[in-house]
Amino acid sequence: METDRNARVRLAQLQLYVNNHINDQYLTPVLTVIVAALLTTWRPLAWVVTWAVVELAIIATYLTCYRRFRAVDRQPHEEPVWARRIAWAHGAHMLSWSSIIVWGWVPGDAANLMFTMLVHLGLVSATVAMSNPHRRLLLSDMSIPMVALLAPPLLSAGAFNTGLAMLGLFYCALMLCVAAKIHQTTAEAIELRLRNEELIARLERQTRIDGLTGVANRNHLLATGNAEIRRASRFGHPMALLMLDIDHFKSINDTHGHLVGDRVIKAVADACALSLRDCDCLGRMGGEEFVAILPETDLGAAVAVAERLRATVEALRLTHEGRPLVTTVSVGVTVLESASEPLANLLSRADVAMYRAKKRGRNCVETEVTSRALAWRPQDVAATV
Ligand SMILES: Nc1nc2c(ncn2[C@@H]2O[C@H](COP(=O)(O)OP(=O)(O)OP(=O)(O)O)[C@@H](O)[C@H]2O)c(=O)[nH]1
Q1: Domain for residue 212, yes or no?
Q2: Atom 23 (ligand 1) nearest CA
Q3: What is the CATH number of the domain that holds 244?
Q4: 261 lines ligand 1 (CB under 6 A)
Q5: Per the CB 3.0–4.6 Å rule, which of 164, 213, 258, 315 could disulfide with 269?
């Protein structure tokens, strides 16, 4: 979990880095042209044009890499791969700019030296400002312009050049401290955000899920039921509702204790949830009573589902201390009978049916529909909406 969160923090740092750099598409081509124009003062036009063309191609490559990164659904374990790709793509850009030193610098020409140093001061500053979120990228981006900033004055003798090298060194040290601080702050902020997101997701889950069984709780079940009624009414589709109650549950509690009773409730919920479709919603109404909302299901299909659930629970072979726990359910079935019918009506009909099943001897399925159900056809609604 902790390793996963670390990978997610680094992934978020990569995201920040890419977001920071995505506007390079407007800035870097313009800067390339301006710097190239200035370089023509010292170097032959053909060299400068070649450099500018190569640099523009490198910019296009790393921007493509960023766009891909933003377009895909990234998983935490892929972070090192993306970090490497992005570091290479942007590192090439930094190398290209730093190459100005190799061929653009004219030894002994102070104005030219100041120009190349200024370019690299700018690169180091921008790198700190934009690359700080991610250690790997900071390294790949910063080390090249830093070397390029310090190398030229060091290569020339004299107090002036030594002074410039010292200044450059001081500036780089300062920027490294600033980068470390920003890195720490952003990492903390990202980690806090991720923890908050996890917490919110857990809280949201808790408001929907029944703590004992893991199926929907009463509130979520009722909300889903109402939403499914609206959808079924709007499109004129059928919808069914089942009510399941564990038989003689009180005697399980009384004989084996509440903890065993809880285990039985959980086992029944698990078995029923596994037997339903993904689009169905199984919820615990309370105690040992469950309700299943079945979208796109007419009465015949709903009875078949109810029978399947009943048989599934009957087939459970639960034991406690070597003794079998006989577990069965009685199921009441009903369907949506008219457009926008209140959920309470369906619950009440399913309840009536379920109690009829109890009276019939339990471990069976009963249905309850009123005569209006026979008159109402789903397609009538579809034709009028
Ligand atoms: N272990 C446990 N027991 C619960 C829970 N909620 C309700 N109960 C108990 O479940 C029992 C339900 O019993 P009754 O409603 O009388 O029904 P029954 O014994 O299942 O009998 P029939 O429904 O008529 O088959 C009661 O004793 C409740 O205290 C729970 O979350 N865990």
Answers
A1: no
A2: 247
A3: 3.30.70.270
A4: yes
A5: 213
Asked whether residue 189 falls in the same domain as residue 234, the answer is no
Ligand 1 site, residue 250, Cβ cutoff 6 A: yes
- Count up the domains in the chain and report the number: 2
Please indicate, yes or no, whether residues 242 and 319 belong to a single structural domain of this protein.
yes
Q: How far apart are CA 195 and CA 239, in angstroms?
A: 40
Give mean pLDDT in consecutive 10-residue pieces for the chain, a chain of 385 residues.
Answer: 79 90 88 91 90 94 93 89 93 89 78 86 89 84 90 83 90 93 90 92 93 96 97 94 97 94 97 96 97 96 97 94 92 93 96 97 95 48 39
Whole-number Å distance, alpha carbon 133 to ligand 1 midpoint, is 56
Give the residue, out of 250, 327, 355, 362, with the most ligand 1 atoms within 8 A of its beta carbon, to mutate for a pocket test: 250
The domain boundary residue, chosen from 202, 232, 254 = 202
**Position 213 in a domain:** no
Answer yes or no: is 207 within a domain. Answer: no
* CB of 270 shorter than 6 A to ligand 1: no
247 CB less than 6 Å from ligand 1?
yes
Residue in 98, 175, 82 with CA at minimum distance from that of residue 130 = 175
For 274, the domain range is 218-384
Token representation of residue 183: 């890195």
ipTM for the predicted complex: 0.90
Nearest-angstrom CA–CA distance, 78 and 200: 25
Q: How far is the CA of 266 from the centre of ligand 1 (A)?
A: 13
